[in-house]
Amino acid sequence: MAIPKKGSRKISVDNVVYRWMIRRKYKSADDLLMVAIEKEEHGKTILYVITDFLRPDGAFQKIGTVSQGIITPKDIENYIRTALLKGWKPENNGSEFVLHM
What we know:
Blueprint: E1 9-13, E2 16-22, E3 32-39, E4 47-54, H1 59-63, H2 73-85, E5 97-100
Parallel strand pairs: 4-5
Antiparallel strand pairs: 1-2, 2-3, 3-4
């Protein structure tokens, strides 16, 4: 499944353009922010990065123990570089690649 153009942003890392967006709640990380990233051209495998930032609409928000952060383009660049080093091959067919940060 491709990342929709509406609501996503582009970033260039080493002259390769990627598209990314903050995902809605995700099955295994309901209270953590998750980012989806894919290669803009010929991307076939989506990278899902489960961050250590709590979602503002998660359960921990309701009890007042929130450790929120802001995900910056520099963070996205670091996620991409880390995933590539760990074996993410965005142009190959395959299931999703999940990275816990």
